[in-house]
Amino acid sequence: MKFRNSIKSRIIIAFLAFSSLLTLLFAISSLSIRQSLQTDLIAQTISDDLEGFMSRFAANPENMINEPLSSNVVGILTTPDNFHLDLPLHYADLPSGHHVLEEDNRSYIVAVNKSHEVNGKPVWGYIKFDISHMNQDNTEMILTFIVMAMMFLLLAYGLAILVSKRALKPLSDLASRLDHLSSGQTSHDIHPEPLAPYFTEDEVGKIATALDGYAEKLTNYVTRDKEFNADVSHELRTPLAVIKSTTELISSSPRLTEKDLQRINRIERAVKQSTELIETLLLLAREERKEKHDLERTQPAILIKDILQGFEPTLRLKPVTTEVVEHDWLQVKAPESVVSVVLSNLIGNAIKYTPAGVVKIIINKNSITVQDEGIGVTESELPKLFERHYRVGKSTSKGSGIGLAIVKRLCELYNWKIDISRNQDTGLSATLTFHQ
To answer: 89 or 286, which is more confident?
Structure first.
């Protein structure tokens, strides 16, 4: 699992992001408040100093002429008619009060007082206080905030790990119990141990309860399915065995004609085909539950001859012939019933969809190819052939459309490869490659 996708990582990232945001807001707020308080304090101080000096100067101008304007700064007195040369001209337009100005890349607080008169003439007082050093003092505070931010982040990271472990422990326990159930479950033990008793009635407990309900439904479904498979295996095999034994008794009668024997042989082949199909379907059902199956060795060439005999009545009804080409001897490690079902579907489809021509069956060292001269399909239809209930030419073809789906599942079960391609002229070629 990638770090960024885990719940634990999301909790940690959320804690770190929240802590970083709070630290940043705290630092910005502190610096802004500090700057504002310093500016207001200085402005208020020099304004009070200027007011006190101007009051004393207006009352006794001769005695105050040499007295310093303020103990902290040096101010300037001027008049509107003869504005002091040390002051910028735009200062004359400043109203009474204090102002923060930028001059020559430096910051100043300028206090202005225009509310007094001497001998009937207005007198203006200015105090100019350099506050550039205050911005330089902020560097130390910024470094302090950076160190504090790193400490807060480390603390938030540790707290996030602790909180995530405690918060996710019930989920970890649930995952561990589920993994234990999955690894310890056997084919005979289909009733899993309930999970809900091990958890409190919180969110994780609700999940455990829901999983128990789902497991109960699934268990009931599997139980019914296994019982159905067992019933099918028993109930269908019994009448098939009766039919088989009856046909054997009938075929031993000396009064049967050649035509009667052919009909009895058709019944026997149909019984054999039905028995193989039942065994194969039951094998598929068991394999879905990971049950082991016995492997046998089968010779497909012998099966192909029996399969073609079963399709003789169909072949008599249309101008279709079959040809078996055996390039090499082939033996497959699989039950005869499985190989027979796969080949019967492939050969049966080739005969069914060939209105006239030759169905060629080629046996190679590790594969069997069934070529037909039928109607074929388009390139886009090839991937759909193995879908359940998909039929080529649905308006005219008969059948349920599950034959090739069964073939596909059997090939996946035995690790075989099935490939259907279009022929150069007409029809299709189905190649079955065996994994030996």
So the answer is: 89
